[in-house]
Specification:
Strand content: 15-25%
Number of helices: 6
Radius of gyration: 16 Å
Order of helices and strands: EEHEHHEEHHH
Distance between the termini: 40 Å
Length: 191
């Protein structure tokens, strides 16, 4: 069972990203502040949930969170500053868009670029330990999947509605056959 928060502070924001290991598309991040008494049965790391359950939880998170925000960094930004820095940039944008100043940030992973004026704690596998990070995981994943389905409509050969830009055999074969798109991360080894 996941814990409500790491610090117990009422405005603790969970942070997570989605799409870091993809060959195409933006990297997304979410910041979520949950009310301490909120029960979200089954909430977990988004990778442990079915697509249907992620969508159900997304609706509940967006409806009941104290504050939430989703942001992204583009393939151009990823190429310019690298994927780690682009992930931090997306996380910072999400925190800036919360509408409230968090008391503390809990970040899934082992590294983070400090956000000005707000202390943070990095937690490896935090999305499987704390509800606010798991909620951020769900929002980052579902909003990114939505974006990749939109891009799939423009570039159907790459299978982004199914692989979300990850390096599957179908995706790599499409790059071989059709070349990269403007949405591919040119600094990544595409083939």
């Amino acid at each position: 069972m996941l814990l409500a928060s790491y610090t117990g502070m009422p405005l603790e924001a969970g942070l997570d990203e989605a799409g870091r290991g993809c060959l195409a598309g933006p990297v997304f991040a979410a910041a979520v502040i949950l009310p301490p008494e909120l029960a979200l049965p089954g909430l977990n790391d988004s990778k442990q949930l079915s697509a249907r359950r992620r969508e159900q939880l997304r609706e509940l998170i967006c409806r009941h969170a104290v504050a939430w925000a989703v942001a992204e960094a583009s393939p151009e930004e990823i190429a310019s500053i690298n994927i780690a820095q682009a992930s931090y940039l997306a996380m910072h944008r999400a925190v800036s868009n919360l509408g409230v100043v968090p008391a503390h940030l809990v970040v899934d992973g082992n590294r983070f670029k400090p956000y000005p004026g707000v202390a943070h704690t990095c937690l490896v596998k935090g999305d499987a330990k704390y509800l606010n990070i798991a909620a951020a995981s769900v929002l980052a994943k579902t909003f990114r999947d939505d974006r990749m389905r939109e891009l799939h409509a423009e570039f159907p050969d790459y299978g982004w509605s199914q692989n979300a830009g990850y390096p599957t055999a179908l995706h790599r074969n499409a790059i071989r056959a059709h070349g990269p798109t403007l949405h591919h991360r040119m600094g990544f080894r595409l083939l």
